[in-house]
């Protein structure tokens, strides 16, 4: 059933569908879209792994702005009470922000915490988007290339 739905989405909307699913999946933790499975299957179905990674990386990066803005809003609420802690976030992101965000975006864990922290630390939004895109792009590329290689698996198993 799930495979039929994914197949329909990929054939109907193509790369734009991957972008939309990535955007929705990264925007909220309440929509449990099987994004990584979709990325793998898209290449299995013959889509270009590089374009899959590009559109998925863009969608995931823009979707992560929700957690960034939550953190930015939280900064305003917490500023008076936790001024010292917020200064620590700001110093951390000023020193290690770009590399830390890129690596965290690549790793398979809940990235919302990083986005909220970057917002609290008032990390520059353009740098946040670029760093997030780099990590998400390479994660999606790895998954898309896995799918590209897995498309030959039925032929290997038949011998």
Described by strand count, sense and barrel closure, the largest sheet is:
none
Query: Would you count the extended β strands for me?
Result: 0
Give the class from helix and strand content and strand pairing: mainly alpha
Distance between the termini: 28 Å
Q: Stretches where pLDDT falls below 50 for ≥5 residues?
A: none
Strand content: under 5%
Please give the count of helices. 8
Q: What coarse outline follows from CA principal-axis ratios?
A: elongated
Cα radius of gyration in angstroms: 18 Å
What is the average of the pLDDT values? 84
Number of domain modules: 1
Bin the helical content. Answer: over 70%
Order of helices and strands: HHHHHHHH
* Oligomer classification: single chain
Describe the structure.
The chain has one domain (about 1-155). It has about 160 residues and is mostly helical. Helices cover about 80% and strands about 0% of the residues. The protein contains eight helices and no strands.
Explain briefly what this protein structure is.
By secondary structure, this protein is mainly α.
Give a quick set of tags describing it.
mainly alpha, single chain
Topology:
Elements: H1 2-27, H2 35-44, H3 49-63, H4 65-78, H5 83-106, H6 112-120, H7 125-150, H8 153-157
Helix pairs in contact: 1-2, 1-3, 2-7, 3-7, 4-6, 5-6, 5-7
